[in-house]
């Protein structure tokens, strides 16, 4: 059996070793998941809620341990990892508490043509859900799916990124402490091949979080078995700063939103469009704040290393391409790429078609552009194949601008606030994917609606029978004309 070794990208120190799942072991894993799922589903909402809240409590008690492990495998500063784990705890709490309200069987209003039937709606778990996670938020991203999927009554087989297996295993081990009876949450380790095998394994639904390119491969694999997919993919999020914004708050949010986790955040700010009249002031503040950040590993660091070594040349190439097209680096630049680190880089005068303005950079690089009007800011922000999140700073028009952005989520006078709002759905549009985790929609994403209609009386007008007469059909026409024939009624 081959082993996967994870290491700290800042120091190279080994973090853990895990057996790689051989794809032939998947059928027994899925089978074990199916048996566990039946037991889990039969527990009902109240029992599942109790256990999920215990899991949440365990994570809260041991959150610094989780954060240390995240920090060790990704290189992100421990304080940033704590913020990540906190959001995941919120997701567990919310899903556990709200699953019954959102998914419990209910009666639904009957409608006229079938007035004789009582309408019942149930949300049933899919069965075994496959969850494939990325390395950049190795607790929050899987937990967003796990929380909804488990609360809805599914079992889960989770494949963490090969860069963060220890975090994935830690989560599954903690869950097993509160749910020791059956393997409701199983973890399998390995690279993309193992992920692809999970897509083809016969899971009943697949929740993928990762890059848009891999998302396409996941879709192709799942298409073979018509396995439904949730796709949480990449982003190129924009921030818009209006002329009446609180500039200190906007600059602070821009620096954190763009540079947190060294820019390796799916919904991190990568592009900033600023009202021309406040542009210079805003840029000065952002540069001053960003240049004071510490890059490194260990206590005191604000930005850690680039976790995925192969991203370093991508970041460098995007900066080089922008500079070659006439952009200027007002902070950082090509020299900022000093493996395994990239120092904060702020680019101006970047042509809209440059890769750094269009493609995910996934590094601490901000592109700041002045705009003559807010309409132009919206046009440029929407000029992207991605549509994950966004941020708007301003007073009078901020909410209206938020409404015009083609994204799944927007923070107003804040940044990434939707990442902590477990009651709202998370997800994007366009190349950022489809489907939702978290919130009511997230719970429904992991349940299949089942409609049952129970006849309670003879039909008003017999129609679903060959025994209907010409008179019945004429009555049906008359009734439909009366019920639906007048547009305003
Ligand atoms: P990848 O797409 O490289 O990998 C994501 C996961 O998919 C990993 O577990 C990976 O395994 C696995 N995988 C790789 N190939 C396949 C395959 N053919 N079939 C099935 N699974 C496969 O993304 P990263 O891990 O590099 O994460 C960064 C990306 O994730 C960024 O684009 C970021 O924007 C996005 N992201 C999106 C979020 C969202 O909510 N929209 C949240 C967080 C990140 P392995 O690691 O072993 O290769």
Automatic annotation (TrEMBL):
Keyword Oxidoreductase set for record: yes
Gene Ontology biological-process entries: aldehyde metabolic process
Superkingdom: Bacteria
Gene3D superfamilies: Aldehyde Dehydrogenase, Chain A, domain 1 (3.40.605.10), Aldehyde Dehydrogenase, Chain A, domain 2 (3.40.309.10)
Keyword terms: Oxidoreductase
GO terms for MF: oxidoreductase activity, acting on the aldehyde or oxo group of donors, NAD or NADP as acceptor
UniProt key word Zinc-finger: no
Domain Aldehyde dehydrogenase per the UniProt entry, residue ranges: 5-452
Pfam families in alphabetical order: Aldedh
Active site (catalytic residues): 232, 266
Similarity section: Belongs to the aldehyde dehydrogenase family.
Protein name per its UniProtKB record: Aldehyde dehydrogenase
The organism of origin for this protein: Natronosporangium hydrolyticum
């Amino acid at each position: 059996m081959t082993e996967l070794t994870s290491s700290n990208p800042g120091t190279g120190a080994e973090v853990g070793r895990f057996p790689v799942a051989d794809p032939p072991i998947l059928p027994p894993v899925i089978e074990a998941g199916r048996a566990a799922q039946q037991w889990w589903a039969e527990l009902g909402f109240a029992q599942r809620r109790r256990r999920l809240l215990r899991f949440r409590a365990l994570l809260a008690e041991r959150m610094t341990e989780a954060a240390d492990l995240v920090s060790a495998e990704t290189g992100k500063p421990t304080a940033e990892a704590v913020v990540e784990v906190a959001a995941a705890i919120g997701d567990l709490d919310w899903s556990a508490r709200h699953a019954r309200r959102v998914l419990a069987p209910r009666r639904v209003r009957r409608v006229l043509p079938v007035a004789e039937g009582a309408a019942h709606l149930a949300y049933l778990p899919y069965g075994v859900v496959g969850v494939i996670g990325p390395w950049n938020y190795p607790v929050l991203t899987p937990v967003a799916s796990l929380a909804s999927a488990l609360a809805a009554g599914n079992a889960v087989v989770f494949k963490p990124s090969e860069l963060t297996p220890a975090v994935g295993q830690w989560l599954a081990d903690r869950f097993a402490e509160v749910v020791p009876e059956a393997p409701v949450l199983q973890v399998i380790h390995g690279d993309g091949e193992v992920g692809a095998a999970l897509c083809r394994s016969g899971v009943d639904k697949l929740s993928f979080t990762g890059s848009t390119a891999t998302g396409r491969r996941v879709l192709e694999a799942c298409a073979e078995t018509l396995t439904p997919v949730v796709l949480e993919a990449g982003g190129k999020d924009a921030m818009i700063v209006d002329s009446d914004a609180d500039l200190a708050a906007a600059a602070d949010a821009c620096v954190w939103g763009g540079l947190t986790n060294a820019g390796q955040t799916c919904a991190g700010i990568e592009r900033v469009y600023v009202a021309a009249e406040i542009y210079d002031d805003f840029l000065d503040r952002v540069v001053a704040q960003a240049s004071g950040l510490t890059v490194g590993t260990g206590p005191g660091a604000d930005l850690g290393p680039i976790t995925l070594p192969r991203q370093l040349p991508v970041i460098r190439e995007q900066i080089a391409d922008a500079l070659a097209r006439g952009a200027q680096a007002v902070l950082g630049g090509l020299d900022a790429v000093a493996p395994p680190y990239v120092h904060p880089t702020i680019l101006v005068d970047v042509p809209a078609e440059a890769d750094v303005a269009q493609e995910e950079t996934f590094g601490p690089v901000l592109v700041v552009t002045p705009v003559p009007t807010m309409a132009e800011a919206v046009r440029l922000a929407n000029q992207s194949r991605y549509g994950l999140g966004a941020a708007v700073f301003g007073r009078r028009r901020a909410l209206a601008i938020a409404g015009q952005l083609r994204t799944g989520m927007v923070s107003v006078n804040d940044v990434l606030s939707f990442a902590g709002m477990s009651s709202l759905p998370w997800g994007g549009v366009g190349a950022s994917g489809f489907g939702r985790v978290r919130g009511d929609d997230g719970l429904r994403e992991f349940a299949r609606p089942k409609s049952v209609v129970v006849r309670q009386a003879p039909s008003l007008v017999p129609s679903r029978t060959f025994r209907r007469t010409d008179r019945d059909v004429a009555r049906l026409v008359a009734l439909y004309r009366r019920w639906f024939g007048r547009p305003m009624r």
